[in-house]
Design a protein that fits this description.
Elements lengths: L2 H10 L4 H20 L3 H24 L7 H34 L7
């Protein structure tokens, strides 16, 4: 399923801010799966979808605060998003170092 299309369509049909957090968490989980399989093009695509969802969340949250009874669920979603993000960054670091070496014209060393 394409997160950027399906999740955005689902969000438009609901007014719950939690729907945004859930969509962002789902996209971050899909990003992690793509990173684990080395599919960096998919990671970049999903990162773009997350950016759109985050911008929409910010706009909606400015007009509609999160109800207090949903704050605990938001906190759990945010924790999962942060854990996913940390693992994605850890997986991406060697790839980013290789890219930096290529862009700097440094030869790749074999270990």
């Amino acid at each position: 399923m394409n997160v950027s299309i399906q999740s955005t369509a689902d969000i438009i049909m609901t007014t719950s801010l939690l729907a945004y957090y859930e969509a962002i968490e789902k996209a971050s989980a899909e990003m992690l799966a793509a990173a684990r399989s080395g599919n960096w093009d998919e990671v970049v695509k999903l990162e773009g979808a997350c950016a759109v969802l985050i911008a929409q969340l910010k706009n909606t949250a400015a007009d509609q605060p999160l109800p207090a009874d949903e704050a605990q669920l938001k906190s759990r979603l945010m924790q999962r998003i942060l854990v996913n993000d940390a693992e994605i960054r850890q997986l991406a670091e060697p790839w980013l170092e290789d890219l930096d070496d290529i862009l700097a014209g440094r030869p790749k060393t074999l270990h």
